[in-house]
Amino acid sequence: MTTAAALEAEYARLTFPRFAEAEAWVLGQKLVELAGSAPIVINIRSADRVFFHAALPGSAPLNDLWARRKSNTALLFQLPSFLVGARNRENGHTLARNGLSEADYADHGGAVPIRVTCVGVVACATVSGLPQAEDHALVVAAMQALLAG
Fold first, then answer.
1. Phi–psi pair at 15, nearest 5 degrees
2. Is the pTM of this model over 0.85?
3. pLDDT above 90 for 2
4. Rounded distance between C-alpha atoms, residue 52 and residue 59, angstroms
5. Domain limits for position 28
């Protein structure tokens, strides 16, 4: 199991110089490319707007619900959903401790906030359809590729 400390260090390296519609499109395309034939849903959104969405072959409507719940968590905490879950597991807590409903929030891996230097969190990239560690790793790999230029 990945530790909260390892996830914190990983997320600290994922800061963008800028992020707008063009970058969302490039990130979404990179996620599609890296996904290969994986049956996943990809969603990149802010709190009030979807920038990119793809339901790849073999994904299911349930993946959309998971993506929404995980991205809600990442946007609210401004941390990767996998990190929120790791912290909760390490401390014996749940999202309910914060008054959050499982119908709207999930602390499973796959949603990573998109943070911009000197601005903060502006959006969230989410993958749903694989085991949570793989969902998370796919988002991180795509973000790293975009940052590497």
1. -120, 130
2. yes
3. no
4. 16
5. 4-148
